[in-house]
């Protein structure tokens, strides 16, 4: 027959099959004859093609009879277009969706009792539908996450608003908890009343783990390396990894790293000595500093995973039951004690490598009590990614530590090491680098320079920037100031020469531009010269804050001092001002870091400084500490320098001066006057040398300079002899030949005194000589 027809026997097996039936259903006669007709139907009773696709067709089954009994059936099939069919089981579609949905789906009543559950939902819990239906969710499964899901079901039943959750649930029979993406939604009738609550859940543990891995690595980029401190960076890393990734983390570094140096590329093979920078275990973030010393190096034997990961240059992962770990613990009592105490089950050791050199290693450990799942291959990849970030941050901190050490050493070498002892002034100073706990070395500086005539120079400067470059610039400026002070220039002239030096040096610098402003361009400086004889202080400043004068009664005032431009600009001249410092008064010189902060402007800074300087203090050092504690209690962003100076005024009984006429015969009178004055001072032993010096200096003034000539003696810790004249010509020391009649006077002065020199004044010059006194 060409029609789609077949013949069945009384048992329902196919005995005949037409070509039309073969075309419609796809079965050849040899494939279908002898098989039961049930093979042509789906589980729901629909006709099915040989490929398994349901067919839309009308089926007629007619009995075949002989004379006395039924002998079989005639099967007639008629295809029906899909759009025209009216036999599609619409009522079964929701059932099919519910049962065949790959997601875990459940329907609960308004009391969170399970009404229906598909196979993924019931199979996940290990229950049959008969066991689970009618029971609350918390009666089927236990755990805080299940309790939260039940609360959400009850809340959705009450409010009619859908909710979403991502609980971490460990189901019966699972080795680890899984992450579930869960939607809880109301099932409403036509009137909008909530009749039940639907729950759909999907296990997305793999996506969750990947997301957590990315989040952990991303968080490491922001949380690790916030400071340039080696120990702080290691601690940040340990706090990040515990307990999210491991229960115990130890960051061990080679000793040169702590000094800012790169370790040797080849490590010893017998044992590797490392010092712990940070060690944390999961007990509310408890540090193991009491167990593992952060100041002593610990030798890791070759059998340890830490030593092997350093030697092999790659991460190693082990279970604590591995023979390698047993051998390691037998050789390392410290690690054996920790293992016995905390009970680890797996570990990963990862080398910290930067610039092709190992800086140390990180040891990750998991305990059975909190991480039942041991470290796997994916964990090794995560640990390596985390340690790569740590290596970058530690290498940056190491570089900074090295540069900071160089800068601090340079700074300590250039700054005065102790409070200067000078007969004209008592001083005390403090310097605080910018940053937390002196994290950076900067360009602030101060100096106390002894000057001829018992005078003293006080200088405070500020260089732009921090680090080695700022320190080097500071050293150049301090050396230049010392050199200019030695020729005894007035403050305004000294700053002018210093500005010229910087301007010329900046113009001579070649090379490619770096985009960084040189530290000496825009540097500021304050220079003061105090004369204890007159009690006068002459000051000039280049872009620097004006000093503060503290009066004997404790009141303070800012000195009205003309402000010149910062150094290196070469624009405006500098002006000096003279200030009388009363007996018992004090000068405060400082940099702007002491005055200004983010919360305090310059005016408020001066007011607070004057108030702090009025506080009682036993010594100048104590007052320095009081001022800094008051104005700089928190870590500061700029360097802070403070120099306190309490000048002394020489009494008249320590001075003696005479105006001498321009007559060579007066030289003998000068020697006599000096001898008498020394006798009054009880310095008769110094008479011979002093008379020799006076004779030579006065004679030179008579011959080469002319009047007016003035002779002055100053008695302090040393004896100073000064001869002033009206000439600007400077004498020169030379070695006289055998038959020379002159040239020996200054040579003898230089030999018999501690030092001598010339300083220039507005009316001429002064030649001075200083000799040590041997007091009884």
Any low-confidence stretches, pLDDT <50, length ≥5?
83-88, 511-517
Number of strands: 34
Mean pLDDT: 82
- Describe the sheet with the most strands: 7 strands, antiparallel
The proportion of residues in beta strands is: 25-35%
Q: Please estimate the helix content.
A: 25-40%
Count of separate DSSP helical elements:
21
Quick one: overall form? rod-shaped
Separation of the first and last Cα atoms: 148 Å
Class of secondary structure makeup:
alpha+beta
Cα radius of gyration in angstroms: 48 Å
What would your notes on this structure say?
The chain is of the alpha+beta class. Helix content is 33%, strand content 27%. The chain has 21 helices and 34 strands. Strands 11, 12, 13, 14, 15, 16 and 17 form a seven-stranded antiparallel sheet that branches. Strands 5, 6, 7, 8, 9 and 10 form a six-stranded antiparallel sheet that branches. β12 and β13 form a beta hairpin. α8 packs parallel to α14. The longest helix is centred in the middle third of the chain and has 38 residues. The chain is rod-shaped and about 180 Å long. About 2% of the residues have low confidence.
Summarize the structure.
This protein has 776 residues and is α+β, with helices and mostly antiparallel strands. The protein has 21 helices and 34 strands.
Kindly list the characteristics that best describe this protein:
776 residues; alpha+beta; seven-stranded antiparallel β-sheet; six-stranded antiparallel β-sheet; 21 helices; 27% strand
């Amino acid at each position: 027959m060409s029609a789609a027809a077949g013949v069945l026997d009384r048992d329902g097996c196919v005995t005949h099959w037409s070509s039309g039936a073969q075309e419609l259903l796809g079965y050849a006669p040899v494939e279908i004859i002898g098989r039961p007709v049930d093979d042509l139907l789906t589980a729901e009773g629909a006709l099915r093609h040989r490929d398994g696709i349901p067919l839309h067709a009308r089926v007629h089954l007619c009995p075949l009879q002989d004379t006395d009994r039924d002998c079989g059936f005639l099967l007639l099939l008629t295809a029906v277009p899909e759009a025209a069919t009216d036999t599609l089981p619409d009522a079964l579609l929701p059932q099919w969706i519910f049962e065949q949905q790959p997601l875990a789906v459940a329907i609960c009543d308004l009391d969170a009792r399970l009404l229906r559950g598909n196979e993924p939902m019931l199979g996940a819990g290990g229950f049959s539908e008969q066991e689970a239906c009618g029971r609350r969710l918390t009666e089927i499964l236990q755990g805080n996450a299940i309790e939260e899901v039940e609360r959400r079901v009850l809340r959705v039943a009450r409010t009619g608003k859908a909710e979403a959750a991502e609980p971490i649930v460990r189901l019966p029979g699972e080795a680890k908890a899984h992450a579930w993406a869960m939607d809880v939604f109301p099932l409403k009738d036509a009137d909008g009343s909530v009749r039940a609550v639907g729950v759909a859940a999907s296990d997305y543990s793999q996506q969750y783990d990947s997301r957590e891995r990315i989040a952990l690595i991303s968080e490491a980029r922001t949380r690790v390396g916030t400071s340039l401190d080696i120990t702080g960076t290691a601690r940040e890393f340990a706090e990040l990894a515990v307990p999210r990734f491991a229960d115990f983390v130890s960051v061990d570094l080679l000793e040169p790293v702590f000094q800012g140096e790169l370790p040797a590329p080849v490590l010893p093979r017998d044992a590797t000595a490392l010092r712990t920078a940070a060690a944390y275990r999961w007990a509310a973030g408890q540090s193991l500093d009491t167990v593992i010393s952060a100041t002593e190096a610990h030798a890791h034997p070759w059998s340890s995973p830490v030593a092997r990961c350093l030697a092999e240059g790659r991460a190693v992962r082990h279970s604590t039951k591995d023979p390698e770990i047993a051998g390691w613990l037998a050789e390392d009592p410290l690690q054996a004690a920790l293992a016995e105490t905390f009970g680890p089950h797996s570990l990963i050791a990862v080398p910290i490598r930067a610039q092709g050199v190992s800086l140390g290693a990180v040891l990750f450990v998991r305990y059975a009590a909190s991480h039942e799942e041991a470290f796997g291959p994916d964990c090794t990849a995560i640990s390596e990614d985390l340690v790569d970030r740590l290596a970058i941050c530690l290498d940056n901190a190491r570089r900074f530590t090295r540069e900071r050490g160089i800068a601090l050493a340079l700074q300590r070498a250039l700054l005065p090491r102790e409070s200067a002892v000078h007969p004209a002034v008592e001083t005390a100073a403090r310097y605080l680098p910018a940053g937390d706990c002196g994290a950076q070395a900067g360009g602030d500086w101060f100096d106390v320079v002894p000057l001829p005539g018992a005078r003293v120079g006080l200088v405070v400067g500020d260089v732009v920037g921090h680090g080695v470059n700022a320190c080097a610039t500071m050293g150049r400026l301090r050396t230049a100031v010392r050199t200019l002070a030695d020729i005894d220039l007035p403050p305004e002239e000294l700053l002018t020469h210093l500005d010229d030096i910087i301007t010329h040096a900046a113009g001579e610098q070649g090379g490619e531009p770096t985009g960084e402003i040189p530290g000496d361009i825009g540097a500021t400086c304050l220079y003061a010269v105090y004369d204890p004889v007159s009690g006068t202080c002459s000051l000039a400043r280049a872009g620097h804050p004006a000093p503060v004068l503290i009066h004997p009664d404790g009141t303070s005032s800012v000195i009205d001092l003309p402000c010149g431009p910062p150094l290196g600009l070469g624009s405006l001249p500098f002006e000096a001002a003279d200030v009388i410092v009363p007996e018992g008064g004090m000068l405060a010189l400082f940099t702007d870091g002491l005055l200004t902060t983010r919360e305090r402007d310059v005016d408020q800074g001066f007011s607070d400084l004057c108030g702090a300087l009025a506080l009682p203090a036993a010594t100048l050092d104590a007052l320095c500490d009081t001022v800094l504690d008051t104005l700089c209690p928190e870590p500061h962003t700029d360097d802070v320098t403070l120099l306190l100076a309490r000048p002394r005024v020489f009494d008249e009984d320590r001075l003696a001066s005479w105006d001498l006429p321009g007559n060579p015969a007066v030289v003998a009178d000068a020697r006599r006057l000096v001898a008498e004055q020394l006798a009054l001072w009880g310095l008769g032993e110094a008479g011979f040398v002093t008379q020799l010096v006076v004779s030579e200096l006065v004679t030179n003034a008579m011959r080469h300079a002319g009047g007016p000539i003035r002779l002055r003696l100053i008695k302090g810790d040393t004896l100073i002899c000064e001869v002033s004249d009206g000439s600007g010509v400077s004498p020169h020391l030379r070695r006289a030949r055998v038959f020379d009649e002159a040239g020996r006077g200054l040579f003898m002065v230089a030999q018999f005194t501690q030092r001598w020199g010339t300083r220039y004044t507005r009316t001429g010059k002064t030649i001075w000589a200083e000799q040590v006194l041997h007091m009884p």
